[in-house]
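[Discussion] Sanity-checking designs against the backbone

I'm trying to build intuition for which residues belong where. Below is a structure token string of 344 positions. I'd appreciate it if someone posts a full sequence so I can compare it with mine line by line.
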């Protein structure tokens, strides 16, 4: 399998904006052949031109990932154009900011169709081609909301939880068969993408990402890494890692933090007026963009992800060092207590 990105044929859904667009450009800069999929043709053609300028090869494939026949055709298009699929990246997503009661059934259906079924369709479409090759990597871009839901995003969180569950089941099936196909689940923290501008909002204002916020390039860096060095599961952003750990250790405490004084409701409201435009049911017009409107205090990279999350052995060493320090501190404390008891 071509593990070096430069030689790979890559399919990316959601390639017209945000993380998908940044990732496509990063692959193109390395010389990869990239099949670009999204609903907006103008934005895709702009990305394709930039990839070719950078030295890569690109194929535009206008695709609605919520429609199985179109995703199946996307996979065939990639094979017809470049002969194979080395890496398939499921990234397309839509969102809505509203309470469950405010959300219509049609809105919930659409979010689940694009965000969950779209990734399931992507996995199903890629698998037959990768099986024939005897290798391949599927990277599913979920969110830290795959581990921990937040209010006002119930359908989105449900879809991301579903991606995690489906990915884990498929991982085990492929491992059992020694299929040679790797599945990686990538869970970004809040990222400064156009998703917040494109999301349907019933907040009265545009939604905002929960701080701290990372730039799309931090996620793209992690995706390129796992395309060459497959990992089971990657969280991008130290803040997201802290949230997922908190959700496992003390979920009730996380609940309390999110709802006290309306904390998590306030943080998801921007001070920008809602213009009433969204991409829930149709793509946004125009050339598209990689970044959103929340870059003022964003983090260009995640040092935690770069130096720890992508390197499990370093995590084990750090964990061992911390446990050792705790053990030393505990023995020192017991020693002081013992000396105190003897003196008494």
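Best answer:
Here's mine. Compare freely.
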């Amino acid at each position: 399998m071509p593990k070096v990105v430069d030689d790979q044929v890559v399919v990316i859904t959601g390639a017209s904006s945000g993380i998908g667009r940044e990732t496509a450009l990063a692959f193109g800069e390395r010389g990869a052949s990239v099949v670009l999929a999204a609903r907006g043709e103008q934005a895709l053609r702009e990305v394709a031109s930039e990839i070719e300028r950078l030295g890569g090869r690109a194929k535009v494939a206008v695709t609605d990932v919520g429609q199985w026949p179109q995703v199946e055709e996307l996979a065939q298009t990639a094979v017809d154009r470049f002969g194979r699929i080395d890496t398939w990246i499921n990234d397309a997503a839509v969102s809505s900011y509203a309470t469950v009661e405010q959300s219509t059934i049609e809105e919930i259906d659409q979010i689940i169709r694009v965000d969950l079924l779209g990734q399931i369709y992507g996995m199903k479409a890629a698998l037959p081609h990768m099986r024939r090759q005897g290798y391949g990597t599927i990277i599913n871009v979920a969110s830290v909301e795959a581990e921990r839901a937040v209010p006002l995003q119930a359908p989105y969180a449900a879809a991301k939880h579903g991606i995690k569950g489906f990915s884990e089941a498929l991982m085990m099936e492929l491992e059992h068969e020694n299929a040679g196909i790797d599945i990686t689940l990538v869970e970004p923290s809040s990222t400064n993408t156009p998703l917040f501008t494109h999301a349907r909002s019933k907040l009265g204002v545009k939604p905002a990402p929960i701080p701290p916020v990372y730039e799309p390039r931090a996620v793209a860096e992690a995706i390129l890494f796992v395309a060459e060095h497959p990992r089971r599961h990657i969280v991008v952003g130290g803040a997201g890692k802290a949230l997922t750990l908190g959700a496992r250790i003390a979920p009730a405490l996380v609940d309390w933090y999110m709802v006290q004084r309306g904390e998590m409701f306030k943080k998801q409201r921007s001070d920008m007026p809602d213009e009433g435009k969204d991409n829930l049911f149709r793509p946004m017009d125009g050339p598209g963009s990689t970044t959103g409107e929340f870059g003022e205090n964003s983090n260009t990279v995640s040092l935690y992800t770069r130096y720890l999350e992508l390197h499990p052995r370093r995590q084990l060493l750090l964990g061992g060092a911390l446990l050792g320090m705790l053990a030393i501190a505990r023995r020192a404390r017991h020693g002081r207590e013992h000396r105190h008891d003897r003196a008494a």
